[in-house]
TrEMBL record:
Cited PANTHER family: TRNA SULFURTRANSFERASE
GO MF: ATP binding; CCA tRNA nucleotidyltransferase activity; tRNA binding; tRNA-uracil-4 sulfurtransferase activity
Domain of life: Archaea
Subcellular location: Cytoplasm
Stated name of the protein: Probable tRNA sulfurtransferase
EC number of this enzyme: 2.8.1.4
Taxonomic placement: Archaea, Methanobacteriati, Methanobacteriota, Stenosarchaea group, Halobacteria
Chain residues that bind ATP: 187-188, 270, 292, 301
Amino acid sequence: MIPPGADTVLVRHGDVGSKSAKVQSDMERVLRENLERTLESRDIEAAVDVRWARIFARGDDVDAIADAATDAFGVVSASPCLVVDPSMRGIRRALANTAREHYDGGAFAVEARRAGSHDFTSQDIGRDGGEAVWEAVENDFQPEVDLDDPDITFFVECRDDAAYVFLEKRDGPGGLPLGTQRPLVALVSGGIDSPVAAYEAMKRGAPVIPVYLDLGPYGGPDHEARAIETVRRLSAYASGRDLTVHRVPTGPAVERVVEATGAERMLVYRRLMYRIAEAVAEEAGAVGVVTGEALGQKSSQTAANFAAVDDATTLPIHRPLFTRDKQDIVSQARDIGTFDTATVNAGCNRIAPDYPETNADPAAVRAAVPDDLPCLIETAVEDRDLVEVP
Ligand code: ATP
Ligand code: MG
């Protein structure tokens, strides 16, 4: 619900506010730039400012501005506001107009905050503001005040140079502004887990460089289409940043692994993936690898097996979903809009052996790596191409 005449969106951050003054102001700048880029990429006009640890975006389409803000990492909530004179008269008038437009019976509350010097307190705003709402609607309704469980809340935030009146706080994703960390390579398969893992890394501020391994006879165009489409979905949260996918032709290397290995196959295959991710990361300036792996989700994802693969690369392998249940991941994939694509059927040939190792001996896994694999990896990385995500 938007107060009549609203022309500003008040945007609040969370973890950013727990930083030292310098870091906070740097992060606020990044958040402001991200919001500006998102607005631009959606053709929404707005002027964005940072003041008193809040971001204010002024423009005509406050509904669209608030939606854009709540897609930006670092944002905890956003409210389309009517901005008025920081006087009791100005606030009362704004509340009365807003009530006439939006109140339609039931219990209401006025919730006020105030900072700066005024000749009234926040309690005064609550009381006088409540009276203004009451008087505005009493001819048409039998209003009722309930501060604990209202049907509608009129929020007022009063500062030295303006007062803000709003009716809702739309939830944002929280986290930290994208771009406040160095980039990470995200291994994206087009499945349910990997886009959620990439989202989580982005949510804490790390831009991702998506890497898709084209597994040749073990993958196929449908897999690739899923991977590209899930990345496209993620671009809604990327603050207008580039999410070009590095597509690495990994078929020959995987065929070699399948032919040369038995019980350790999946672990040699995981090592192959990390090596490829590492090579792309080195060229692209990324400082780690993100995967959708979770403890115990698959036979290759046991605690012992992670211990047998992580030394394939000197880069840290980040597994944001490590402790998450599948149902929880699925529900998040639905929320962020990647689930439907990830579940499009894209049959494939099975790489896994009939009896995959679940308690690998790291030395045995290293010994199972075919000698010519590094060479195949090098060729695959050299031959990769870039798929722009529309
Ligand atoms: P997802 O985990 O995305 O749902 P999955 O569970 O079928 O797919 P696994 O075989 O469990 O995939 O692989 C674990 C992780 O390895 C994935 O989450 C992803 O990060 C990475 N991965 C798997 N296949 C590919 C691929 N073809 N290209 C890039 N990364 C991949
Ligand atoms: Mg998985």
